[in-house]
Design brief:
Length: about 400
């Protein structure tokens, strides 16, 4: 009888603890699935070497969104024999445009390798589905990409001749100054990329990688430093692919099979509002992680994506939105629709009200260092609850077993 009593306890324990368990685990790191209604204002974007996908997120659950993206990737999949090897990061350019930053994929080096590093800018409104990239001749080349070990073997003359760029995947685009840059001081201007540039060995010695800035947070001019630079010490294991209004999108690689997964990093909305009202510091805002979707490497999908509101000014993340059958959602945004006829060409001029700082970059740039993979605040809460419940039920089970043993 005692054994049946203990078995009953374990069944109850399993039932009670199950609700607190994670939905999925990547590299033994637990995640819950994202609440998809929170993305109702947005389009989801992901890239391949041939183009990018732009899909509306409103009214779609996680499975439906993924199926739509996969169908588009399958319809535009390129045969392995003709597949281009590349890496493409992308960044905010202005309210309606996005800039794609193309470079060699140094993880899958072909022989000979195409070292061209280039960019292409496009307006996003009115685009949907799979949008092909233009032919190579339509991209603007700004130099040749080299890994750090290769770059350091180049002479100063070779660096100048090749317009060499060390570890181009670490560079980010800062729209306020219209240049690609690194927090260590590297600069490549869009206005004159072959003359107005700074790329030296200093850009090779980097502990923190895949730099990003937050275009929305910077617009409010309330940051602790003029230029908030976000990065990671995890390299290709945990890539921050986007920063926007303090939220972020990451690509987390599962070591077991090498596959990437999109993870969304969202902030406590009450504390986020306090931050924008200058009542709380950025590093004091709580963050949480949730699982969005797998990245289909087999279909050419790259671990670089982004999520954008339909109109700048709408919330990137708002789980209070109620999905209905109506054609629109209720949001707090009063931002007018942007002029979709605007072109990115005129935006090469420096934006108004943005002043250049003569202070050395090391003094004006604050880097958010991640000494370890960020912990999921939800995960800690669930673990505490689970352990507490398990401990309490174990005591109950032990008591029942003692009673049964005493009766025998």
């Amino acid at each position: 009888m005692a054994s049946s009593g203990s078995a009953w306890i374990f069944v109850v324990l399993a039932i009670l603890v199950t609700p607190f368990a994670a939905d999925i685990s990547i590299d033994n790191f637990p995640y819950h699935f994202c609440a998809m209604n929170g993305f109702a204002n947005n389009y989801f974007h992901t890239t391949t070497c041939q183009g990018f996908v732009r899909v509306k997120m409103y009214g779609k659950d996680r499975k439906t969104l993924d199926e739509e993206i996969v169908k588009l990737l399958e319809d535009h999949k390129v045969e392995a024999s003709t597949k281009e090897l590349c890496e493409i990061r992308s960044f905010y350019f202005n309210k309606t445009a996005w800039i794609f930053f193309k470079m060699p994929d140094f993880t899958r080096v072909s022989d000979p390798i195409d070292r061209d590093v280039s960019y292409w800018i496009t307006d996003l409104p009115a685009k949907k589905g799979f949008i092909p990239f233009p032919p190579k001749g339509k991209w603007t080349i700004i130099g040749k990409g080299y890994e750090a070990s290769q770059f350091k073997r180049l002479s100063k003359q070779d660096i100048e001749k090749e317009h060499a760029i060390c570890d181009p995947w670490n560079w980010y685009f800062r729209h306020q100054d219209m240049d690609f840059r690194l927090s260590s001081g590297g600069r490549i201007s869009l206005k004159n990329p072959f003359k107005n540039r700074n790329s030296t060995n200093k850009e090779c010695d980097r502990l923190y990688q895949y730099e990003q800035n937050d275009p929305i947070a910077e617009q409010h001019k309330i940051l602790e430093r003029p230029d908030l630079v976000l990065n990671t010490r995890w390299g290709r294991e945990f890539i921050r692919t986007q920063a926007y209004s303090l939220h972020a999108l990451h690509a987390d690689r599962n070591e077991a099979d090498g596959n990437y997964h999109f993870i969304f990093d969202y902030k406590d909305l009450k504390q986020l509002e306090e931050f924008f009202n200058m009542e709380r510091r950025e590093k004091e805002v709580k963050y949480y992680f949730c699982y969005l979707r797998p990245i289909r490497y087999d279909l050419g999908e790259l671990p670089h994506g982004f999520v954008l509101p339909e109109v700048e000014g709408m919330k990137l993340w708002d789980p209070s939105i109620k999905i209905t059958t109506a054609a629109s959602t209720t949001t707090s945004s009063t931002t007018p629709m942007p002029d979709t006829t605007s072109t990115h060409a005129v935006a090469l001029e420096k934006p108004e009200n943005v002043t250049s700082s003569t202070t050395p970059p090391s003094q004006v740039i604050w880097t958010k260092n991640e000494a370890e993979k960020p912990q999921n605040n939800h995960t800690g809460k669930y673990v505490v609850i689970s352990v507490t419940v398990a401990f309490a039920l174990s005591l109950i089970g032990l008591g029942i077993m003692c009673v049964w043993a005493f009766r025998r």
